[in-house]
Write a structure and sequence with these properties.
mainly beta, dioxygenase activity, Quercetin dioxygenase-like cupin family protein, oxidoreductase, Bacilysin_H2HPP_isomerase, RmlC_Cupin_sf, single chain
Length: 107
């Protein structure tokens, strides 16, 4: 029911990106993702629905065939299997929520 930040690990994914797994169960997962300026979230897709809330920074996001610059307070929805990715324009942090949870993120 509770996930305390002091009990989580910030995992270095390389190339200026790191991630922290937050609360999750079989139906939902929250993940904090940190980006350095210039870091890239490569274009990809997955069968999960995903909401992204921009906590800080500035990102150029592509979802499907649309590209927009987003900043703190903006939210993005990614339907299952849609291609999406980003470039970090100013160092920042995202809060991603997935349903169902991302089993592939767990060790």
């Amino acid at each position: 029911m509770f996930t305390f930040i002091k009990e989580t690990e910030l995992e270095d994914l390389g190339a200026g990106v790191s991630r922290r797994i937050l609360a999750h169960d079989g139906n939902m997962m929250a993940v904090e993702v940190h980006f350095e300026t210039g870091a890239v979230g490569p274009m990809h897709n997955h069968p999960h629905e995903q909401l992204t809330y921009v906590l800080a920074g500035e990102f150029e996001f592509t979802i499907g065939d649309e590209t927009h610059v987003v900043t703190a307070g903006d939210t993005l929805y990614k339907q299952p299997n849609i291609m999406h990715g980003c470039v970090c324009l100013k160092a920042g942090k995202l809060l991603d929520t997935f349903t169902p949870m991302r089993q592939d993120f767990l060790k």
